[in-house]
């Protein structure tokens, strides 16, 4: 087990995804953010089944930055309830994990 985290969120546009990613990396909350998409999302919202095109952000960071990432996403995101899931990284290439640690505050 490591102290590294993979955090995911989605954004409604590439522009918003890029803005969130740039802020997270610029604030040194994340070492790297991959943006994938567009992807198709199907979900329940306010009693209706919704279909949306979204962009998936894969955020690489540390446990210590989890709350700050959560606060930043709430600040920067246009959704009323943005997706935000955090996964523990059990293992990985040691030099990559070291790079994540050196890239975030």
User: Sheet with the most strands?
Assistant: 4 strands, antiparallel
Count helical runs.
3
Q: Secondary-structure element sequence? A: EHEEHEH
Tell me the distance between the termini. Answer: 20 Å
- Helix percentage: 25-40%
| CATH structural architecture | 2-Layer Sandwich
- At the first level of CATH, the class is Alpha Beta
Q: How many domains comprise the coordinates? A: 1
Mean pLDDT across residues: 97
Question: What is the CATH topology?
Answer: Alpha-Beta Plaits
Main-sheet strand order equals: 2-3-1-4
Low-confidence stretches: none
Q: Whole-number radius of gyration? A: 14 Å
Structural class: alpha+beta
Beta-sheet strand percentage?
Answer: 35-45%
Number of strands: 4
Query: How does the overall form come out from the CA principal axes?
Result: elongated
């Amino acid at each position: 087990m490591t102290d590294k985290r993979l955090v995911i969120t989605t954004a409604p546009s590439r522009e918003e995804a890029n803005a969130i990613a740039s802020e997270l990396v610029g604030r040194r909350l994340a070492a790297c953010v991959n943006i994938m998409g567009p992807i198709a999302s199907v979900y329940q919202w306010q009693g209706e089944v919704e279909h949306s095109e979204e962009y998936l952000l894969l955020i690489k960071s540390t446990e210590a930055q989890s709350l700050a990432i959560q606060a930043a996403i709430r600040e920067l995101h246009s959704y009323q309830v943005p997706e935000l899931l955090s996964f523990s990284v059990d293992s990985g290439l040691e030099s990559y994990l070291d790079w994540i640690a050196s890239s975030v505050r």
